[in-house]
Amino acid sequence: MSLNAIARGHADSPTPEGRDARIRVVHVSPAYFGEDAVIGGAERYATELARAMARLVPTRLVSFAHGSDATSLAEAATPLEMRLFRPFWYPRGQRTNPVSFRFLTALADVDVIHCHQFHVVATTLSIAYARATGKRVFVTDLGGGGWDLSYHFDTGRWVDGFLHLSRFSAQRFARYEGKNHVVFAGVDVERFRPSPDRTYETVLYVGRLLPHKGINYLIEAVEATLELRIIGRLWEPHMEAARHRDFLNRLHELARGKRVRFIRDADDEQLVREYNRALVLVLPSVSTDLFGAHHPAPELFGLTLLEAMACATPVIATTVGALPEVVEDGVTGFLVPPNDPRALADRLRWLRAHPEEARRMGERGRARVLERFTWEAVARRCLQVYRGVLGSDRARREEKPDP
Known about the structure:
Blueprint: H1 3-8, E1 25-28, H2 42-54, E2 59-64, E3 81-85, E4 112-116, H3 121-133, E5 136-140, E6 161-164, H4 167-171, E7 180-182, E8 202-206, H5 215-221, E9 228-231, H6 241-255, E10 260-263, H7 268-275, E11 278-283, H8 303-310, E12 315-318, H9 323-326, E13 333-336, H10 341-353, H11 355-372, H12 375-399
Parallel strand pairs: 1-2, 1-4, 2-3, 4-5, 5-6, 6-7, 8-9, 8-11, 9-10, 11-12, 12-13
């Protein structure tokens, strides 16, 4: 799905009425969610949050792209305004760390700058700009980034607030106590919803094809009579090509003789269909992968869990990172230990043997999403934090005696 389509939303989306024009927000995202976007992750988070916020306050999304895409998209994006800028440099060749100075012009007429990813040059420039102009700046770290001065200088001391996806994510920024706020993540519950003819047939994985996602353990766990569909792409800018090939070869070796299908070109429409035919979505992430590499923050949230739950699909996740904050064990699905294909296999067999309970788990999952994990709810939590800081500014100005 293109960035334009996400910005416009659905054809029946209501035009914003009664928006609070007293606060203007710009979201700065180094990751462009375009036609070749990888399912899940930072691109979707920044774009969907900005789109939801645009219904509440005037909101702009700034990102980066090459060629003819690097133009203003304001005329096509209602109610969200978008501006794309052409990078002139990628430090150390890191494609998720684009550098441009022109994007700073899109920050001039706003009250709040909300940056997505901490360790990227665009965020450091935004923080410096906010400090120079007296604007307020907030950061949501999405677990990516690249080379940046923030590794050498404490730019976080100039950030007004860190808005985290989870309590686990907030722990990584413990030194900024007092600035940390958990706003969680959301899902578009109109796009991701159960269909009237949904079935419970397949085991599903959705996400990037990376070693720390633990996909190899899921393939091991699936019995030969059960179809496993793996949706995602092998994409990681800092991962060597040889390691890419080795990992894919391992997955295909494990899949030999089993009903495993790899799907690398699914759009959101197909994704919704796949969720609606799945017995369960599994996110088997690990802290130590099959190559022995350690990943201290394997999952800061797990957006695909929300997408599945919104479609009334039960979920299984491992007890790593923030995943226990999303999945209620025995209620909306199951939590299992990481690196444990036997535990995964046991839960898959149970769901297959108890279709009615699986259906009820899915229904409870959608109810949990509607209660807590919509994008509007996330946007309102962010706005509450913004207003708290801006309100303190106004109070200080009012308390300041006249000269």
